[in-house]
């Protein structure tokens, strides 16, 4: 058996199960070995049903029976109930507000239950227990995943994520069969031994045994730590390579007259904060360096990132070569003093006033159009054209017919003007990365809410097709364009209002320098946040009515768009946009106008609703979290978030940020019916945390960064997400990766000296199968 062999060459697997395995990312033997357990079951804690007592925290294994749903007699709350029995006795189980569980499980299923025993001595039951489906009971020693339970050392068993008939039991036994076939002896550990010994991590063979078949809980923990280190290590190598390559890539050196920049910012209707000024100076300093800037601007909601973007964009599009550059031929030795790095005389002659270009990419059309309008306000007094490109159309400012307004133009015309440099600033969505979009001299790329774009999308924009020093087209398909290509890459500014914990930033954005906007504009009042539990809705609505009377507006956020299938998970316990809007209009606020907005609406429909809301034609906007990012209506100072327990603290903070766009006092009401102490404790942090950065660290501890930031965007597995809670592990992986890359002469050396590591780094874009 070889680790590269397909599983079907060693095991009989039908077509249906092959597809299920493919969905899990498992095709080869190595894929299976690297498909790690989600958790473990310790059968040493088994309790018999017959011995349970009131107020006891029970862990029981047994068979379900009598499952059904009903409604409580007084409250009419939906209830799922049934029994669990293990041979010693049976006890009733009840789930409140979770009727779907009676549909998800069926009589005769083997399960593990964890919950508190309550009721009376004569009528005990387990209330709202956690439930886990099993393939067999622990006491069943006949070919079950709990085999050998007569050996007291073997009480810990892995539980894997399943898919379409591929059970945890099958995965466990198949791994053991691979071990029996001697697969471990054929594997080579990609991590150098000296690195493993420095941090007391097990080698690959030991780690695989400990992760899939641990004798002790510490074995599984140690193995997971090793694989977590490995995953973060590969990402840090990629980051280190990116930084190394960026340092030798050709870029534009941009210089701006301080007096011109001051005149530009003095026209703002507000005074820049110290944090904004410092951020701008840091970016301007990067512009003058010999290598392209790669910087992440992390600022809390309302901290003024757009103003920083506009000011630095102004610095780029108004830059020009020094006097006399067209009259004198320069040598490579002094080119860096002329405003560009390693560029020929021909390209320097092309750099006339405003000829350097800026691309600004936003995640949604609503946000792109909002930035377009903001930039018009910033640049309307200057002879600088601004373009907008989205999936629904293109615009240009200023219009020939009315210089005070933008005009709609054809995509072909916009692309022509961008290509010849007549439009210095182009704002758009992912449409910016289309192959048809060509720039003359793209010198600066700004990506807003960058975590919503994949790595490939960000690179595609940075390496747009442009024109080199001789007017020839170039296309940066490689990771970086090296200096000898004589084709510059633009400076990159990524921005986010999503608070990022330090460990996550070090892991995912280790190739970026980070700047924090940790100061709010003067006069901005902190939002007052309150947690609303059942029975307090009237107090909340009374407050909102008083706010509406003063002319303010409000958002109401719901987790769903429509009323879903009542048999699906939590369907009866979640409010939806359409139903809630009708209820609020008819029963609560009949004297005000209620509108709706959600992700299923077309861009035109959403634009219309947002325009009406901004014009105060709508008083209350009921929406999904589509309003989470960037939507700006200063008069909307109240937000109600239904089902707040369904959102992470970071997302709640983002939603709350929609109502702190003015100097009015803002209010946020987080409505939750959850009785979980953990949930209530987590939501309470929303009322006590000083800023989003503090919330990010809190959310990381309570929900994990996968919930906080999104695994799809980060590229990390569940295990990798666990790893970034450990700052020492992240910093260790970063140090080792930087040392390894620094020891190589060039990127090719990684493949030559560390082929296994190079192969894993190359697969990062595909995602690691460390589920």
UniProtKB/TrEMBL annotation:
GO annotation terms (biological process): DNA repair
Organismal lineage: Bacteria, Candidatus Kaiseribacteriota
Stretches assigned to coiled coil: none
Name of the molecule in the record: Probable DNA 3'-5' helicase RecG
Keyword field: ATP-binding, DNA damage, DNA repair, DNA-binding, Helicase, Hydrolase, Nucleotide-binding
Entry keyword DNA repair: yes
Domain Helicase ATP-binding per the UniProt entry, residue ranges: 286-517
Record GO terms (molecular function): ATP binding; DNA binding; DNA helicase activity; hydrolase activity
Cross-referenced SMART domains: DEXDc, HELICc
PANTHER family assigned: ATP-DEPENDENT DNA HELICASE HOMOLOG RECG, CHLOROPLASTIC
Species annotation: Candidatus Kaiserbacteria bacterium RIFOXYD1_FULL_42_15
InterPro entries (alphabetical): DEAD/DEAH_box_helicase_dom, Helicase_ATP-bd, Helicase_C-like, NA-bd_OB-fold, P-loop_NTPase, RecG/Mfd, RecG_dom3_C, RecG_wedge
Keyword RNA-binding: no
Ranges where the Helicase C-terminal domain occurs: 536-701
């Amino acid at each position: 058996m070889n680790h590269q062999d397909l599983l079907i060459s060693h095991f009989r697997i039908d077509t249906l199960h092959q597809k299920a395995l493919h969905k899990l990312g498992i095709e080869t033997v190595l894929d299976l070995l690297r498909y790690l357990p989600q958790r473990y079951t310790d059968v040493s804690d088994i309790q018999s049903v017959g011995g349970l007592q009131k107020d006891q925290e029970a862990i029981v294994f047994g068979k379900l029976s009598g499952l059904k749903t009903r409604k409580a007699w007084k409250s009419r709350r939906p209830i799922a109930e049934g029994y669990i029995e293990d041979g010693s006795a049976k006890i009733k189980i009840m789930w409140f507000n979770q009727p779907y569980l009676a549909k998800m499980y069926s009589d005769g299923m083997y399960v593990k239950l964890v919950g508190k025993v309550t009721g009376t001595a004569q009528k005990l039951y387990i209330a709202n227990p956690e439930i886990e489906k099993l393939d067999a009971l622990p006491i069943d020693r006949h070919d079950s995943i709990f085999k050998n339970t007569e050996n007291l050392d073997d009480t810990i068993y892995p539980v894997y994520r399943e898919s379409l008939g591929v059970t945890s039991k099958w995965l466990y036994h198949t791994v053991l069969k691979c071990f029996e076939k001697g697969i471990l002896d054929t594997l080579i550990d990609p991590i150098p031994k000296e690195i493993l010994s420095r941090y007391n991590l097990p080698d690959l063979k030991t780690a695989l045994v400990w992760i899939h078949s641990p004798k002790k809980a510490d074995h599984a923990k140690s193995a997971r730590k090793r694989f977590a280190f490995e995953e973060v290590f590969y990402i840090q190598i990629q980051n280190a390579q990116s930084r190394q390559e960026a340092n030798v890539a050709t870029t534009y050196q941009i210089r701006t007259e301080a007096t011109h920049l001051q005149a530009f910012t003095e026209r703002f209707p507000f005074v820049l904060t110290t944090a904004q000024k410092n951020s701008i100076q840091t970016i301007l300093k990067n512009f003058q360096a010999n290598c392209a800037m790669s910087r992440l601007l992390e600022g809390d909601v309302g901290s003024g990132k757009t103003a920083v973007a506009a000011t630095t964009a102004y610095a780029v599009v108004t830059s020009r070569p020094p006097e006399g550059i067209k009259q004198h031929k320069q040598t490579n030795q002094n080119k860096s003093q002329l405003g560009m790095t390693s560029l020929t005389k021909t390209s320097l002659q092309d750099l006339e006033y405003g000829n350097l270009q800026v691309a600004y990419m936003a995640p949604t059309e609503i946000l792109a159009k909002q930035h377009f309008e903001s930039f018009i306000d910033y640049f309307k007094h200057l002879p600088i054209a601004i373009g907008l490109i989205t999936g629904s159309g293109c615009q240009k400012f200023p219009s020939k017919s009315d210089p005070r307004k933008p005009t709609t133009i054809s995509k072909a015309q916009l692309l022509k003007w961008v290509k010849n440099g007549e439009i210095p600033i182009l704002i758009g969505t992912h449409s910016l990365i289309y192959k048809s979009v060509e720039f003359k001299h793209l010198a600066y790329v700004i990506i807003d809410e960058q975590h919503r774009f994949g790595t490939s999308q960000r690179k595609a924009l940075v390496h747009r097709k442009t024109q080199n020093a001789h007017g020839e087209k170039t296309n940066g398909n490689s990771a970086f364009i090296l200096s000898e290509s004589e084709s510059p890459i633009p400076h990159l500014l990524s921005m986010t209002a999503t608070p990022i914990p330090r460990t996550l930033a070090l892991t995912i954005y280790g190739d970026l320098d980070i700047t924090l906007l940790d100061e709010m504009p003067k006069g901005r009042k902190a939002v007052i946040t309150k947690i609303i539990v059942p029975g307090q809705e009237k107090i909340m609505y009374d407050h909102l009515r008083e706010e509406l009377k003063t002319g303010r507006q409000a958002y109401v956020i719901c987790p769903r768009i429509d009323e879903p299938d009542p048999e699906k998970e939590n369907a009866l316990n979640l409010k939806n946009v359409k139903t809630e809007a009708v209820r609020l209009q008819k029963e609560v606020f009949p004297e005000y106008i209620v509108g709706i907005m959600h992700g299923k609406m077309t861009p035109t429909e959403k634009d219309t609703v947002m325009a009406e809301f901004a014009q105060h034609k709508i008083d209350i906007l009921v929406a999904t979290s589509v309003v989470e990012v960037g939507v700006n209506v200063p008069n909307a100072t109240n937000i109600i978030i239904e089902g707040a327990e369904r959102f992470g603290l970071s997302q709640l903070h983002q939603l709350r940020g929609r109502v702190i766009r003015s100097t009015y006092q803002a209010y946020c009401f987080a409505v939750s019916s959850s009785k979980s102490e953990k949930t209530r404790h987590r939501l309470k942090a929303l009322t006590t945390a000083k800023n989003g950065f503090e919330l990010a660290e809190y959310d990381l501890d309570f929900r994990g960064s996968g919930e906080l930031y999104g695994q799809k965007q980060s590229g990390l597995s569940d295990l990798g997400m666990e790893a970034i809670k450990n700052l020492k592990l992240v910093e260790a992986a970063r140090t080792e990766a930087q040392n390894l890359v620094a020891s190589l002469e060039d990127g090719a050396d990684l493949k030559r000296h560390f082929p296994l590591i190079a192969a894993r780094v190359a697969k990062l874009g595909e995602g690691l199968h460390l589920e």
